[in-house]
Structures are given as structure tokens and as C-alpha cells.
């Protein structure tokens, strides 16, 4: 089943207007290692992670004004290397990865090429230029490197109060808070007008043809998306 | 003449080993070798068509029933969301700490697989567990290695799995003596699994946690539906009924199936209940179909081997050690020969070795059972790419088989050596 380009473009336009917080709430809901959150907790985590990203972005701009993503990585002594083709799990590929031990940013070139090809093939260049993908991924991974060097940063903190077996108090963090921070930081630093999570949606859409296998998150963001694949 | 036939039998046996180790279809391999052995041994046609190909599989009904019901129960655990719910709750409990989560998840998986059975269950649960571990920055070789060690750890207590052995070792029972051993063996295997996780975690993750950007890696987790807390008892119902209430396996599984469907509100209407029962049974049978075929062919091969046993005994009688201790040491030292369905793997070319050892009449059946029970679990399910669900796991994680073997083998080998000794002492009643 092919993709109806007109409908897809309409869905992407709808998704472009979607507020960041809505994208991030979906990330919390899909956190593999997460836990149920109250509305207040979810709002708090999203706001906290976004604030941490804004703060790091401001510091970065002050320390390294006007530098490109590649130059910033070099200034931070981060090596940019290609990732093996077989990275990823099942049919879900990786886009990028930060390896703290080696201080490496690993880019999955095949995946990046897939997303770029999808953008061009579906006529989405005017809405989400393919040239904006690579810097965005680099900034995403740079955020993780900066997180590592920022003790006490919100995105790595144990921000939630929980109880062991409902009795003993304990605190825990959320892996998705770190990812929200990275997504938001990459959006600010690369100066794009849409959520970088759209690139994830392109990747998922590129790998799936049947309407029933569409990712719920994208269908939820661009309400017309489901119909784009009729 | 006897020597010549014996040599030809050994040559075909070696050919079968090579075929198995190259990944050939076991069902075809066993049946073809059975025919060749019957021909070489000049077994009368009437015996071939009656004893070798009919009676051998006739007597296998009880085991097949247990395997089918076990796989059906496994499907109920997966399809009703009970397995996913338990995993999700474990992750919630463990928090976002990768090491704690990996350890807890692996132990919980080991416990689930003391009852869940079938390649479908391993795949379905793996598709929940592996993305979780991966999202926590655990590298693929550690995540997959730990998961497969966890699956293997549950096997010693798994009624459906252990029953397969009763085809070859007719007098062995899943009784209190066996359960005592199985609990110890499960403990040893879990200890090896924990050592595996700790070793690779502290070796590969000491410089911090890798962060990966991956689209919607948690799609399967997000779809896990909330259930009532008491659903967590369901996986352990069959084994509890067999162990504490001395029920037979089939009614124990049936009880688990019905309670599983009931607790997850799948019996809220007659039509829903029937639909779920049929679907899970269908999927369970599909999950176990190829295994059943392979086990039928093992039976046929074993029956053929019995017919030609005098030739093999004539040739190999003086070569194979007659001391149980020597055989035990041999198994521990040569354990990797179980890999790729080699001669120490009973569900592979090892079935011929079992048959020869049984035909020698030197060894007690419980000793041979103890000896051959361990390699399929500790070695093959833990470190061999020829295990059906391991093939899936390697493909899913896109991991090189060589890397998987290299990563898991030392821990699998250690677990095998310790468990073999315990098995031979507790089950085989040998004194060291």
C-alpha cells in the first residue's frame, strides 16, 4: 500500500503546529522503563526537562557563540563516528547514540539517509528540510554529553517520589526525561520550527506500509495521518 | 562383518553430526539416519514399519499432550497480557537503574519460564524485555545474553520441557526428588546469569550509560494493559499444583489456562472466552508443532538405534568409559560438544550416544538422565545459536552468532559443570 503524499503532507502540517509538550507527554507514556505518572507529575517532568534543555542551550550559546553542531562537538572533544549498520533492535533502527566511555557520538548513516530520502520522496523538503536532520541529531547527542558533565541536572535526577511495595519511600528518575531534554535541546540549538520527533515519525512511516501498523503517537499528533495511508 | 557394519554406522553417525552442526533440519536428519541404520543393520522390514516407525511414536501421546498444554498455557500468559504486566511491574519497581532493572527482569523472566513454554512465548516476552533493557543503555550482547540465560534458567522446573526427556528415559518422573534437584539447578543457573550480568555490566558500562535515539522503541511496552495485581500468581499455578498438590501436569495447565483467562476478564462472556481459548490453543499448538515433529523423529531414530545397538556395542564397547565419574568428567570438560546439536546434545546427534550408552547396560537410567538433561539447558539454550528462540533473538537484536557464543559460553560452561555434578549426585546417586 503506497503513501498518499497529499494526505501525508497535510498531516505533517498539522503535526508542525503541535505543541512541544504534547510530543514530550507521548515520550513519557512510551518510556519502556517508566512508570505511571499523575497529570501533575507528567507536566512537572516535561517542564523540568525542557527547562534543563533551555538552560544548557543558553550556556552553550554563551560559551560557543555561533558554532555549528560539528564544531561544537569538536570543541567538546567529542568524536563523531559512524555506527555499525546492524545497530538497532528488531525493525526499529537507531538514529544516533552517545557513548560516554569513548566520548563518541555515533551516527547511523543508513538511518539518516533513509529519513532524508523519505523527506525528498514524499515532498516534505519545504516543511522539514532534509539538511536539518544531521545537525539536529548531533545536538541531541551533544546534550547527553553535556548532561554527563552537569551534576545534578534535572534530566538525570531522581525526580519522582515512589514507595517500595507501597511502604518504603524511595526516589526514582525517568530515562525519558533525558530524551525529552535532548530532543528539546536539539530543537533550540538547530533553530528548527518543528519538533525533531517528526524525524522519528518519518522513519517509522518509511518502514511500514499498512495503515494498522502506523505508530499511534504520530496518528495522535497529526490527526489526519491515519487517513493518509488509506 | 559386525565390525564393518559398526564402522558404517559410526560413519553415518558422524555424517549426521556434521549435518546437525551445519544447521540441517533435525526432523529430516533423524528420519533419514534411522532408515540408513535400519538398512545397514539389515533390520527386517516388519520390525522397521512396526517397531521403528509406529510403536516408537505410538507411545509418545502423554508427553505430546503435556507439551501442547504447556505451550497453550504459555500463549495464555502472553496473549492475556499477564507476562507483559509482570514485566512492566518489575520495571516500575526497579526504577531507571539499568543494573537493578536488568537483574530483576532476568530473575522474573526465569520465574515466568518455569511455567511458560514454547518458542512463541520466548519471542513474545523477548519483544517486551529486550527493548526495555536496550532503552536503559544495556548493550545488545548483554541484554540478549541475559534474557536467553533467564529463559534457560526456568527450564529445569518447566514441566512441559522436562517431560520431553521422559520419552528417552522411561522410568524418570517429575517427582519430589526431581523437583528438589530442579530448584537447586535453577538457583545455580540464576547465579550464573547474575554473574554474567554483573561481569558485562561492570566491564562495559563503568564509564556511564550509553544513550540512544531510537523511534518509539517502547511501542510494545506502551501497549501493555493494566491488570489486577493477583494476576501475578497465574504463571506459578501449574507448577504449584504439581509440586504441592500432586496434580498431574495436564489438569494443572488447564487450571492455569482457565484462571489466567478468568483473572484477565477474558471469561466475561461465553463468546469471548471461547474465542480466547481457541486462539491461544491454536497459537500454542503452532508454537510447539515443529518441536513435536522433531521429538517424533528422535523417537524413530532411537528405535532404529536400538535395533542396531549390538553392532555399536561391539565396536564402541571398549572405547566408551564405563565409570560414571569418568563420563561425568568427560561431559564437564567436553561440554562445548553440545553446541550445534553435537554429540552431547540429546536433541541432536547426542540421541545416538544416549542410545549407545543405554544399550551398553552399564549405566543407571537416572544417571544417564542426569547427564543428558543439563547440556540442552546449560549449554544449548544458554549459548548455542541453533536453539530455535536463540535464532530469533540473534536476528531480532542483529547480533553476530560468534559474538553471542563468545559472550555466553564461559558462563554457560561454568553453569553446566556445576549443575552436572549436582545432577549426578542428587539424581544419578553417584558418589564422587
UniProtKB/TrEMBL annotation, chain A:
Organism: Propionivibrio dicarboxylicus
Protein name per its UniProtKB record: Uncharacterized protein
Top-level taxon: Bacteria
Automatic annotation (TrEMBL), chain B:
Keywords of this entry: Membrane, Transmembrane, Transmembrane helix
Coiled coil feature spans: none
Keyword Membrane attached: yes
Keyword match Protein biosynthesis: no
Transmembrane segments: 26-43, 64-87, 99-132, 144-166, 178-202, 227-247, 253-273, 285-305, 325-354, 366-389, 409-428
Record protein name field: Citrate transporter
Organism encoding this protein: Propionivibrio dicarboxylicus
Amino acid at each position: 500500500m503506497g503513501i498518499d503524499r497529499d494526505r501525508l503532507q497535510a498531516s505533517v502540517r498539522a503535526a508542525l503546529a503541535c505543541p512541544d509538550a504534547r510530543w514530550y507527554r507521548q515520550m513519557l507514556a512510551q518510556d519502556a522503563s517508566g512508570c505511571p505518572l499523575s497529570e501533575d507529575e507528567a507536566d512537572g517532568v516535561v517542564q523540568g526537562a525542557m527547562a534543563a534543555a533551555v538552560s544548557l542551550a543558553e550556556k552553550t550559546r554563551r560559551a560557543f557563540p555561533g558554532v555549528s553542531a560539528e564544531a561544537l562537538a569538536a570543541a567538546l572533544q567529542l568524536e563523531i563516528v559512524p555506527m555499525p549498520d546492524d545497530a538497532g533492535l528488531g525493525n526499529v533502527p537507531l538514529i544516533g547514540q552517545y557513548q560516554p566511555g569513548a566520548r563518541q557520538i555515533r551516527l547511523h548513516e543508513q538511518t539518516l539517509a533513509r529519513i532524508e530520502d523519505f523527506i525528498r520522496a514524499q515532498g516534505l523538503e519545504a516543511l522539514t528540510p532534509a539538511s536539518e536532520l544531521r545537525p539536529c541529531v548531533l545536538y541531541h547527542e551533544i546534550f547527553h554529553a553535556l548532561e554527563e558533565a552537569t551534576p545534578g541536572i534535572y534530566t538525570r535526577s531522581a525526580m519522582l517520589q515512589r514507595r517500595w511495595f507501597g511502604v518504603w519511600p524511595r526516589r526514582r528518575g525517568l530515562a525519558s526525561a533525558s530524551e525529552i531534554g535532548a530532543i528539546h535541546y536539539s530543537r533550540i540549538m538547530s533553530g528548527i520550527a518543528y519538533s525533531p520527533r517528526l524525524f522519528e515519525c518519518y522513519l517509522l512511516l518509511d518502514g511500514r506500509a499498512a495503515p494498522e501498523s502506523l505508530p499511534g503517537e504520530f496518528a495522535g499528533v497529526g490527526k489526519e495521518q491515519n487517513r493518509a495511508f488509506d | 562383518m559386525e565390525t564393518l557394519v559398526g564402522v558404517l554406522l559410526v560413519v553415518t553417525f558422524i555424517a549426521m553430526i556434521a549435518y546437525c552442526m551445519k544447521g540441517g533440519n533435525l526432523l529430516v536428519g533423524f528420519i533419514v539416519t534411522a532408515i540408513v541404520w535400519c538398512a545397514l543393520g539389515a533390520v527386517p522390514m516388519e520390525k522397521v514399519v512396526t517397531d521403528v516407525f509406529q510403536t516408537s511414536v505410538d507411545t509418545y501421546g502423554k508427553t505430546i499432550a503435556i507439551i501442547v498444554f504447556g505451550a497453550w498455557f504459555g500463549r495464555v500468559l502472553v496473549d492475556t497480557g499477564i507476562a507483559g504486566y509482570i514485566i512492566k511491574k518489575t520495571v516500575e519497581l526497579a526504577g531507571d537503574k539499568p543494573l537493578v532493572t536488568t537483574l530483576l527482569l532476568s530473575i522474573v523472566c526465569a520465574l515466568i519460564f518455569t511455567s511458560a513454554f514454547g518458542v512463541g512465548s520466548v519471542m513474545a516476552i523477548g519483544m517486551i524485555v529486550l527493548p526495555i533493557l536496550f532503552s536503559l543503555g544495556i548493550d545488545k550482547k548483554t541484554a540478549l545474553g541475559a534474557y536467553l540465560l533467564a529463559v534457560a534458567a526456568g527450564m529445569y522446573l518447566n514441566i512441559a520441557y522436562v517431560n520431553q526427556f521422559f520419552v528417552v528415559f522411561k522410568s524418570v518422573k517429575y517427582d519430589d526428588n526431581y523437583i528438589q534437584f530442579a530448584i537447586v539447578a535453577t538457583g545455580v543457573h540464576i547465579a550464573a546469569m547474575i554473574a554474567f550480568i554483573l561481569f558485562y555490566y561492570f566491564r562495559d558500562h563503568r564509564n556511564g550509560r550509553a544513550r540512544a535515539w531510537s523511534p518509539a522503541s517502547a511501542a510494545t511496552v506502551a501497549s501493555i494493559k493494566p491488570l489486577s495485581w493477583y494476576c501475578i500468581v497465574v504463571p506459578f499455578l501449574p507448577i504449584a499444583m504439581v509440586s504441592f498438590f500432586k496434580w498431574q501436569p495436564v489438569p494443572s495447565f488447564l487450571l492455569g489456562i482457565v484462571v489466567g483467562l478468568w483473572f484477565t476478564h477474558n471469561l466475561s462472556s461465553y463468546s469471548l472466552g471461547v474465542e480466547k481459548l481457541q486462539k491461544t490453543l491454536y497459537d500454542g499448538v503452532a508454537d510447539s508443532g515443529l518441536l513435536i515433529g522433531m521429538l517424533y523423529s528422535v523417537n524413530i531414530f532411537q528405535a532404529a538405534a536400538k535395533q542396531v545397538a549390538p553392532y555399536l556395542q561391539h565396536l564402541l564397547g571398549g572405547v566408551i568409559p564405563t565409570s560414571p565419574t569418568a563420563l561425568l568428567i568427560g561431559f564437564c570438560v567436553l561440554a562445548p560438544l553440545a553446541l550445534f546439536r553435537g554429540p552431547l546434545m540429546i536433541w541432536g546427534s547426542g540421541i545416538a550416544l544416549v542410545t549407545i550408552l543405554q544399550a551398553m547396560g552399564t549405566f543407571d537410567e537416572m544417571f544417564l538422565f542426569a547427564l543428558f538433561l543439563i547440556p540442552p539447558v546449560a549449554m544449548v539454550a544458554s549459548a548455542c545459536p541453533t536453539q530455535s528462540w536463540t535464532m530469533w533473538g540473534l536476528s531480532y537484536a542483529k547480533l553476530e552468532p560468534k559474538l553471542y557464543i563468545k559472550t555466553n559460553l564461559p558462563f554457560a560452561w561454568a553453569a553446566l559443570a556445576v549443575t552436572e555434578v549436582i545432577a549426578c549426585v542428587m539424581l544419578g546417586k553417584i558418589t564422587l
